[in-house]
Each structure stands twice: as C-alpha cells, then as structure tokens.
C-alpha cells in the first residue's frame, strides 16, 4: 500500500513538473511583434519586388496587429539592403524580401560582408514567375528570331536593361540567352526593375527581360512588344507569347521566384508564426488573384522547402556565373 502511494505521488509530481515546464516554455516564448515590422526590399519602388512586398505587407499588418512597413533600399544589386538585414537584430522585426537573384549573389560578388546562405533563416517562398523578353514598340522586331538576327548583324550595338545593378535573375537570363543564341548585347545596369522599365519605355535601351507583373500593363497598352517568355511552357497571362524554346533555343528555361528571409538566429516561434501567417495569406482568394493578375503563381510551403530551393539555385547560378565569367565587382 505504501509503495502504491509513493508511485501515485511520483506520477502526480511528474504531471506537475511537465505542466510547469510547458508554462515556463510559454512564458519564455518571445512576445512578437512588439512594434512595427520592417520588410526591406533591395529594389526601387514600382518594380515587381516592391509590388509584391506591398501586397504582402498590407495583409500581414492586419493579422499581426502591428504595421508591416516596406522599406526600399535599392543599390548594388540589392546587396546593400541585404547586408543591412544580415546585421539587424534577429528579433523578427526586420525581414527581407528577396528574388531568385539572391541565390547567385555569392558567386557574383567577391567582397560581400555576409554569407547569402548562412546569414539568413528562410521564412517562405512567396511566388514564382517566368520572365518575358520585351522591346519598345518603336523597334521593328516582332519575334525573338528577328531580334536575334539584328543582334548578330550588329554585335554590341543593342543594349539591354539590367535592373538591380545587373545582379538579378533578369540579367542572368539575358546572359544565358546571349550565350545560347551566340549574340552580343551590352548590359546597362539600373538600380531596380522600375528604373530599368522606364529606360526601356523611353527607348534608352532596346531590350528588356522583365517580370510580367512589371511589363504586363505596358504590353497591354501597346508600348512594349512581348517577344518570348523564358519558362518551359507559356505564361497564363501571356498565352499568345511563345517560349524561347519554341523559337529555336533548345532547353532554354529561366524562372524567377520571390521569398522572405529573416536574420539568422531569429527565434523559432517567430519564424513558425511568420510562415503560418504568410501561408494563410497566400491561400486567400483575393491574394491569389492579385498575384495571378501580375503574372505570378502563389507558392508557400515550409522554410525547409524554401531553403532547399535557395541551395539548389545557388549551385545552379553559381556554376553558370563562373562558366560565363560574370563578375560585378
């Protein structure tokens, strides 16, 4: 009888201890957010990254109970903004919206003050998109083969706009096309896709590789002509525009993505909540329609899946950048 009582007492103490541990863990979980959250974008206002950041911040503000403020810090292919977030306090109040160009930045730059992989914790992949090859409507080319033929006849005479200082997926897509089509075009770097698009519309440059979200209004208005999309299949928002592959460049495929990162060592409860809230936002019909209208496909998923994508693209872009001999500094 005495032994049974001891066992019962032990079980009761165990339950109390477990309950106390749970309460302690809950008490130690960081209260977040306690102030406005800053979502840093390394590109100028008006570009595709900025459009997506503002669509996300508006909805995220509503569920977090604090404002999510978009902070545009363009320059040096987004590395200035990225370096700032890498050194920010890892408390969940400073986040970074990145494009797929982030994965190749380690190979492009030899003097980064941060490690593009190790300095950050993945939150979520937001969206994916093809690119569209566009030219001003004042130019004579109506198809990609016509553009390529003009480039072959006058090597180095055509300029293409490179948003983000030339260190983005759009710029890499142009370099990939130059190599595969055996043509020579000159890169003209701009601080973001917004300024690059402005230069294209004014015919300051002759060719652009743009995210559909930026180029679509100008294609619809007739100011730009869409010659090709860079994905394996045609874009749902540009169904009449053939792919690069369809026009003679075999196996050509370049797609971009957007995602959210936090500084490394951001508390796991914060990361978990961020991932859950953004996943829920990406499932909202109005958000999905907003992305679709911009030529983007809503993504989502786990941080682990996003990290796997970043690692794979870092390897792919790194190999291509070294093979092509591309260096920004």
Please characterize this protein's 3D structure:
This protein has 329 residues and is of the alpha/beta class. Helix content is 45%, strand content 19%. The longest helix is centred in the first third of the chain and has 27 residues, at 2-28. Residues 15-27 have low confidence and may be disordered.
Topology:
Blueprint: H1 2-28, E1 37-41, H2 48-64, E2 68-72, H3 79-86, E3 94-99, H4 101-108, E4 120-130, E5 132-136, H5 144-153, E6 159-162, H6 169-181, E7 186-189, H7 193-201, E8 207-210, H8 212-220, E9 224-229, E10 255-263, H9 268-283, H10 285-293, E11 297-298, H11 303-324
Parallel strand pairs: 1-2, 1-3, 6-7, 6-8
Antiparallel strand pairs: 3-10, 4-10, 4-11, 5-8, 5-9
Helix pairs in contact: 4-11, 6-11
Spell out the CATH superfamily of the largest domain: Bordetella uptake gene, domain 1
Q: Which structural class matches the secondary elements?
A: alpha/beta
Strand order within the widest beta sheet? 2-1-3-10-4-11
End-to-end gap: 80 Å
Low-confidence stretches: 15-27
Mean of the pLDDT scores?
Answer: 88
C-alpha geometry: globular
Summary tags:
329 residues, alpha/beta, D-Maltodextrin-Binding Protein, domain 2, 11 strands, 19% strand
């Amino acid at each position: 009888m005495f032994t049974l009582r001891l066992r019962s007492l032990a079980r009761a103490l165990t339950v109390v201890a477990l309950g106390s541990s749970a309460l302690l863990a809950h008490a130690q979980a960081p209260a977040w957010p306690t102030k406005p959250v800053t979502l840093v974008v390394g590109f100028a206002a008006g570009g595709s990254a900025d459009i997506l950041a503002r669509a996300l911040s508006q909805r995220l503000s509503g569920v977090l109970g604090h404002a999510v403020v978009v902070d545009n810090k363009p320059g040096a292919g987004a590395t200035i903004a990225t370096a700032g977030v890498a050194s920010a306090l890892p408390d969940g109040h400073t986040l970074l919206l990145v494009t797929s160009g982030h994965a190749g930045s380690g190979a492009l730059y030899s003097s980064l003050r941060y490690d593009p992989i190790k300095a950050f914790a993945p939150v979520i992949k937001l969206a994916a998109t093809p690119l569209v090859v566009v030219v001003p409507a004042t130019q004579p080319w109506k198809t990609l083969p016509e553009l390529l033929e003009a480039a072959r006849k006058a090597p180095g005479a055509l300029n293409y706009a490179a948003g983000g200082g030339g260190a983005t997926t759009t710029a890499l897509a142009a370099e990939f096309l130059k190599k595969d089509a055996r043509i020579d075009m000159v890169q003209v770097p701009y601080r973001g896709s917004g300024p690059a698009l402005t230069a294209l519309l004014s015919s300051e440059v002759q060719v652009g590789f743009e995210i559909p979200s930026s180029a679509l209004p100008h294609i619809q208005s007739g100011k730009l002509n869409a010659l090709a999309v860079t994905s394996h299949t045609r874009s749902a928002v540009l169904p009449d525009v053939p792919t690069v592959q369809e026009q003679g460049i075999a196996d050509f495929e370049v797609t971009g993505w957007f995602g959210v990162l936090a500084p490394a060592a951001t508390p796991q409860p914060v990361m978990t909540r961020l991932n859950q809230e953004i996943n829920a936002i990406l499932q909202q019909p109005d958000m999905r329609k907003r992305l679709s209208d911009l030529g983007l496909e809503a993504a989502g998923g786990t941080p682990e899946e996003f990290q796997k994508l970043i690692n794979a693209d870092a390897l792919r872009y790194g190999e291509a950048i070294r093979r092509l001999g591309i260096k920004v500094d």
